[in-house]
Amino acid sequence: MFDYINGKLIKVASDYAVVDINGVGFKIYTRTLSLAQFNKGDHVMLYTYLHVRENEISLYGFHNRQELELYERLINVSGIGPKVAINILNHTNIKDFVSAIAFEDIKALCKLPGIGKKTAQKILLELKDKLSIADMDSDFDDFDKSAGYTDETSEAVLALQTLGYDASEANKTVSKVAKENDSVEDIIKKALKELARF
């Protein structure tokens, strides 16, 4: 129904954004790390997936068609719904996830929230022929780099959340202070210093 949403960002919450289009506010669930790229008042465009159930209609948004494609492949795995899929993407670097599939790394998949051994085996069975290491080295890898997502920034955000900071606040702060070649410890120290100013 919706291919993409293009409008003004009105609100940023911990797991969703509200985008205004001609006076209508669309509530769009997205990756926590994606929200780090947003600021209230920005003009944004998100590629979307509309989930419709008997008692629920939810909209999920992604910065890139490759990320949307990965999400759609995940929800087609039996036992993985839209919320579980977005939660998986919240806790992994896309490159690492594709790598785990390519190398059939069940242990890595089991570390993700909501994924037990049986579900991990289903993911491998259903996705191993659909995701390849070539994907990781091209589209998905390029996307992670262009969006500024790295293992270090991801770990720093999760560390700040563990310390009690809101996901949106943690994302924005890390995005602001992180520099190329910073270690996780460097990013966390700078982020805590920045947060202490408020």
What does this protein look like?
The structure is a single chain. The protein has 198 residues and is of the alpha+beta class. The protein has three domains: 59 residues, Beta Barrel (OB fold (Dihydrolipoamide Acetyltransferase, E2P)); 82 residues, DNA polymerase, domain 1 (Orthogonal Bundle); 46 residues, Helicase, Ruva Protein, domain 3. 49% of the residues lie in helices and 20% in strands. The chain is built from eleven helices and five strands. It has a five-stranded mixed beta barrel. Helix 9 crosses helix 11 and helix 10 crosses helix 11. The longest helix has 12 residues. It is globular, with a radius of gyration of 17 Å.
Number of domains: 3
The ordered string of helix (H) and strand (E) elements is EEEHEEHHHHHHHHHH
Any idea what the CATH superfamily of the largest domain is called? 5' to 3' exonuclease, C-terminal subdomain
| Number of continuous helical runs | 11
**CA(first)-CA(last) distance:** 42 Å
Q: Please tell me the overall pLDDT.
A: 82
Question: Architecture of the largest domain, CATH level 2?
Answer: Orthogonal Bundle
Q: Uncertain runs with pLDDT below 50, 5 residues or more? A: 133-148
Instruction: Count every beta strand, where a strand is a DSSP E run of 2 or more residues.
Output: 5
- Rg is 17 Å
